[in-house]
Amino acid sequence: MTYYGGREMAASFRTVRGNTIRIAEEIPEARYDFKATPDTRTVAQTLVHIAFGPSFQLHMHQHSLEDLAKVNFPELWAKVGAEEARPRNKSQILALLKTEGEAFATFLEGLSDSFLAERVTMPPGAEPPIKSRLEMLLSPKEHEMHHRGQLMVLQRLLGLTPHLTRQRQERVAQSAPQAGQ
Known about the structure:
By secondary structure, the chain is mostly helical.
């Protein structure tokens, strides 16, 4: 039997956030204003967006909301948007990634199976119309991995090799037969 609960979600999220933080550390602060095209986020904006990614899910599940039709989404998004727009330097962004990520992981860690199994009604028109809390709480990790993929492309455009690529290259090199043996 396979089991995936709050502790496993927290560990998995910490791994994902750790990889994001590593990327944030490796990109020079002088390149935090880089963007691939004029209509995309800068490196800094993407990192801050990632940092606040779990905030909606955290708010909703900390307050045990059960019907999203009652949530004032424009108000929530305005608050998050205003927070994301605040200027920050690299060290502030790194601190934000760490504190926000740990707050979410700590929350996940303490969730019971019965809480994760609870059903939440989605806003009108959403598909599916009802989701489990478990399914919903997986979405911040998926969201972060999507944007982390973008950051890895930005690293390449900046002439950097992402750490996960370097690690894979090292493993391949170590497993290759040694020349002359």
